[in-house]
Design goal:
Length: 514
């Protein structure tokens, strides 16, 4: 596929994302979106930055997944006319990204049908934009205007507001249900209550140290984001991490994947009133995290992956412990899987609940585990394998039904596949150095990272500034693509099934709101 403005030569640095970056005109921007859509490509991320002090313009970026890898376009936008052509008509997932981009940078998507605020919750005035270099932090809180939820009219229709503060220990999100009796006619979300200004915060870090912030975009995906950040940094620095470091990164990524799937499988059982499953899976997850602590000095593996390699190694003794744990946990997961499959009460709650068809998943851009559970066969570990996945040859786990049962089954299958990968990693990992020194970045150098985390694709883009600093960076969580799909997934189901459907996606508030 030839995207307007894009060269045909792609980055081939070992371990880097195969990516091409090109500056385009507004016409090429629109034509590129059309060609990507017609060619079966996908929207990965949309973001922007303030370059007015350098060239008098803002710059809007879009990243697409195409056959050859990652196609990134940058569109300069005049400072006195801050607007660019919208792309949500072709890629609906761009809707909220465009709205957030306006809230943060003040650059509007021309032709967009939905112009409601998304990120801004009264934290700054409507005519101020935090990602502009001349932004002044307001002295105090700003009155937040009412949010115009879409109303559903009709006899017997009621609204049920939920959140943003919840009874459970979860992050804030607002949900507005329109129901008749217990049947859901419509769900509308409002998120971004945990916006932390991460894009702005990156500018206070050096390229060498930015992994610390990247690994905290979404705490349950710290390995995925840190690896994506390291890929981006190594790309712009032209650095190749040692072979052992790449295998250690894969070890950490698969252990993060298993830990989250174990937790989710327990929580899904609990949401269907099967407390035994919750207790058993959380026991397994706790043992898994404790061995992380013993081997790496950290339970959730934060700050393990750094530009140039990794910050800790695995001893031969701990490698043996990992192998023994893989064997024991896989046996227990297999036994619990049989219980799930034979439990009539669980299957009654799971089957046909919260269904997302393959057609809807494709048109709205569902990705990651939820996407593969609806027939979307995308997995970066197999599609664009960074070492050592090119040797490991991971198997894609794809299900067609698109319901809660499919998402549960996909988790079981991915646990088993991760166990296979972990065995291979531990038995084949080469000896050698775990980290190399990195040079000072060239100002203006640009790099991207793209990693298949347990939830989906973690994406990071970095632009270097002077004196080794970050000029701008953007981290994108797959929850941006997947939160909108929760709305149609709930339609036609009953209100008590919402927690179960929501947990079957298990999307990140923090990652989306960053």
């Amino acid at each position: 596929m030839r995207i307007p403005g894009h060269p045909v030569d792609w980055r081939t640095l070992p371990g880097a994302v195969p990516a091409g970056v090109a500056r385009v005109t507004p016409r090429q921007w629109t034509e590129g979106a059309r060609l990507v859509h017609e060619g079966g490509g996908r929207l990965v991320a949309l973001w922007g930055t303030d370059h007015r002090e350098y060239n008098g313009a803002f710059t809007i970026y879009v990243a697409y997944a195409v056959r050859e890898g990652l196609a990134v376009q940058e569109l300069p936008v005049r400072g006195d006319r801050p607007a660019y052509p919208e792309i949500a008509g072709l890629f609906p997932a761009a809707n909220r990204m465009q709205r957030a981009l306006y809230d943060l940078l003040g650059v509007a998507a021309e032709g967009a049908a939905d112009k409601r605020p998304w990120i801004r919750h009264g934290a700054w005035p409507a005519d101020a934009f935090p990602l502009r270099n001349d932004f002044v932090i307001p002295d105090g809180p700003v009155a937040a205007e009412p949010y115009p939820f879409v109303r559903v009219e009709g006899d017997g229709v009621h609204e049920i507001p939920v959140g943003p503060i919840h009874a459970g220990v979860i992050e804030p999100g607002q949900f507005r249900f329109s129901v008749v009796g217990e049947k859901v006619l419509r769900l509308e979300e409002r998120l971004a209550f945990t916006h932390k200004g991460i894009d702005k915060r990156f500018a206070s870090f050096s390229v060498a140290d930015g992994y610390k912030l990247a690994g905290r975009v979404s705490g349950d995906s710290t390995v995925a984001f840190a690896w994506a950040y390291a890929q981006a940094a190594e790309s712009l620095l032209a650095v190749v991490p040692p072979p052992r470091a790449r295998w250690l990164r894969a070890l950490a990524l698969e252990r993060e994947r298993v830990a989250n799937h174990l937790g989710d499988l327990g929580a899904l059982g609990n949401d269907a009133a099967f407390g035994f499953a919750f207790a058993q899976f959380m026991r397994l997850k706790e043992d898994w995290l404790r061995l992380n602590r013993d081997a790496f000095g950290r339970r959730l593996l934060m700050d393990l992956i750094v530009p140039g390699g990794v910050d800790a190694d695995v001893s031969a003794k701990n490698a043996e412990r990992f192998l023994r744990q893989v064997e024991s946990v896989e046996r227990e997961v297999t036994a619990l899987q049989h219980i799930y499959e034979d439990h009539a009460g669980l299957q009654d709650r799971f089957l046909s609940t919260g269904r997302v068809t393959a057609v809807l998943a494709r048109s709205l851009g569902l990705c990651g585990l939820a996407g593969r559970s609806s027939g979307q066969a995308y997995d970066l570990r197999a599609d664009f394998p960074a070492p050592p996945y090119d040797v490991l040859e991971p198997k894609k786990i794809v299900r067609a039904a698109g319901d809660v049962a499919a998402r549960v089954q996909a988790r079981f299958d991915e646990v088993h596949e991760s166990m296979r990968l972990l065995r291979s990693i531990l038995l084949q990992m080469p000896e050698g150095e775990r980290r190399v020194e990195i040079p000072e970045p060239r100002p203006g150098a640009f790099g991207v990272g793209w990693v298949e985390g347990w939830r989906g694709e973690a994406f990071v883009a970095i632009e270097a500034g002077g004196e080794g600093r970050i000029r701008h960076a953007h981290a994108h969580d797959p929850s941006w693509q997947n939160w909108p799909l929760l709305e149609p997934a709930v339609i036609g189901n009953i209100v008590p099934d919402f927690p179960l459907i929501n947990k079957s996606f298990n999307l990140s508030y923090s990652g989306h709101d960053s």
